[in-house]
Amino acid sequence: MSNKPTVIDATNRTIMTDQDSYYWRLRFLQDWVFKLGLQDLEPFIAFRPNSNTADGLHEGTCMMDPKKNKYMLIFNREATDYTLMHEVGHMNLNKITGKLKYSRQLANTIEELQNLELESSPFKLLCNAVEDAFVDYHLAKYKEGYQVMIKKHIKYGKAYFEPKTLIKMKFEHHLGQYIIFYLIYNFILKTKDISNFWKKRNLDFFLNNARNAIRKENKKINIEKLNKTLDKFNTIKDTTNYQDIISFNYQVLNSIGVYSKKEVSDYLKKYFIKF
């Protein structure tokens, strides 16, 4: 990149050098920044101690400060290639759709970063699942990105739907994973690639596990209505207007049958600057 991003290890507060064990990850990130035409941005990149979560999904996050127009990419120490690529992909989605505006501020110092608590609202988990599908759709247009996704979503992704994994998750994690995998398997990955990896155990087997876990925790959920709404993704996946993505979030959250329209509207107005 023409201007090197600020990179720190949030544990020991040292600037990363080419001798650091994370240097290859920085190079991988830089490659994707160039590939996606984001080299004029200067993201603040940090590696933090691993988070011990039941679902193992929090390897990285991309945050944007709307007032400063600056990005922060935060990764766990063991973040995979998919996670590194995916978080840069959030910056790419913002570029494509005219910059998504979040109602949040970022850390200004390392001390603030260490104390930063990521939002854990159930709506945040579900909206993030929807946004992730748009991010991955655009990354999958690149051969290298598609190959990384095969490894993530097919080779290892099925582990998320095993009963022993599902039992550890909260309802919104079940639901969020169902949403993202439904969209990825139906509208992003190729059927032949899914079949080549899974053979006898097909997609329906794993999605059924997720559906059963979701219904067991909340019988109000309307899976059929949710699926019909998710199918609309195929008609708007190439949108260049982020308002379309916010509207899709609104439709998805309302189709679940668990939350009131007021709850959904209030959250989206809080989460996004424009709604």
How does this model look, in words?
The chain is an alpha/beta fold and 275 residues long. Helix content is 53%, strand content 9%. It has two domains: 6-114, no CATH class; 122-271, no CATH class. A five-stranded mixed sheet has the order 2-1-3-5-4, covered by helices on one side. It is globular.
Produce a short descriptive summary.
The protein is α/β, with parallel strands linked by helices and 275 residues long. It has helices at 23-35, 81-96, 110-114, 122-139, 143-155, 163-166, 171-187, 191-198, 203-217, 223-230, 233-236, 242-255, 261-271, and strands at 6-9, 14-15, 44-48, 60-65, 70-76.
The total tally of domains equals 2
Alpha-beta content class: alpha/beta
Helix fraction?
Answer: 40-55%
Largest sheet at a glance?
Answer: 5 strands, mixed
Number of helices: 13
Strand order of the largest sheet: 2-1-3-5-4
| Strand element count | 5
- What is the approximate shape? globular
As a whole number of angstroms, the C-alpha radius of gyration is 18 Å
**What portion of the residues fall into strands of 2 or more residues?**
5-15%
Q: Residue-averaged pLDDT, rounded?
A: 75
Q: Give helix and strand order, one letter per element, not per position.
A: EEHEEEHHHHHHHHHHHH
Unreliable spans are 1-16, 52-57, 103-110
Distance between the termini: 34 Å
SSE map:
Layout lengths: L5 E4 L4 E2 L7 H13 L8 E5 L11 E6 L4 E7 L4 H16 L13 H5 L7 H18 L3 H13 L7 H4 L4 H17 L3 H8 L4 H15 L5 H8 L2 H4 L5 H14 L5 H11 L4
Helix pairs in contact: 1-2, 2-4, 4-7, 4-12, 7-9, 10-12, 12-13
Features:
275 residues; alpha/beta; 2 domains; 5-stranded mixed β-sheet; disordered N terminus
